[in-house]
Amino acid sequence: xxxxxxxxxxxxxxxxxxxxxARLTIRPASAEHGIWFKRTDILLGDALVPARWDAVEVxxxxxxxxNRAGATISTIxxxxxxxxxxxxxxxxxxxxxPEVPILDGSSAPFVRAILARGTRTLRAxxxxxxxxxPVHVQTARGWARLSPARPGQGLTMDFHIAFDDAAIGEQDKxxxxxxxxxxxxxxxxxxxxxxxxxxxMQANGLALGGxxxxxxxxxxxxxxxxxxxRHADEAVRHxxxxxxxxxxxxxMPILGHYEGHKAGHAMTNMLxxxxxxxxDAWRVVECDAVCAATLPGAGVEIDEIPAVx
Length: 309
Hints:
The chain is an alpha+beta fold. Helix content is 21%, strand content 29%. The chain has helices at residues 77-85, 108-117, 181-186, 195-203, 234-247, 265-276, 289-292, and strands at residues 3-5, 9-14, 21-27, 35-39, 48-50, 56-57, 64-66, 72-73, 91-95, 119-121, 127-131, 135-138, 143-147, 155-162, 170-176, 192-194, 216-219, 222-223, 254-261, 282-286. Strands 11, 12, 13, 14, 15, 19 and 20 form a seven-stranded mixed β-sheet that branches. Helix 5 packs parallel to helix 6. Zn(2+) binds at residues 78, 238, 242. Catalyzes the hydrolysis of UDP-3-O-myristoyl-N-acetylglucosamine to form UDP-3-O-myristoylglucosamine and acetate, the committed step in lipid A biosynthesis.
């Protein structure tokens, strides 16, 4: 059955790009509500923004959503990944500014708080998007693909990245997102960037809230962030975290196999647009107990969060 968070939980921090302080609260919502954001600082006009693929604006550095009245919320991917990975189908996410606080640069703070609150079962069945035929998008930089699920599996993921900096280099990871693997394997992996990129972004008014504590910053073969990496392949794990959050803007869990080759936020959104433009490539299914057990949030326990986070 569908779920929501049992009680509200709040977070405070600064936006990674804006540097603006923000307070975010995840509140319970009714069945069939889905995931919506609300700008509590907007007192006149429409302050509600759906966390949906067709509300996403093109933005290479984060996932930003906008409603028809022009209200925006940026950098939603980490909290969206936490909601997906904890099996939360319905929630109202209130925020008093235009950007989600970055916290430690991962989803772990959101995951820990959600699991500490627990979930409440609602009187409506979980529905999922089953991929029936491959859908592929490609740019000069990379590609992404959704294919039918492997037998007996829900959402699986293969990801490949390649960076010139030796501290990252080339990394590959494959993961079945069932049985709490998001919480165990991905949720604590932080956003990352090159020192040269930080300098360029800050010169252009971006990454104003970035620090060595809320992002992994590398320079050549050096990791500049104190304490180093949480995982040797933390970079590709974070890319998979981002992809799960971005895929959740489909409005339902996805039953299929996602592949990303040097993919990012914009490409995953392109992939969802291509999917929904191909009606023969997908269908909505009602999940029985067997299907529901393959979803990312099934069987998650709070003690599965890595201790390093």
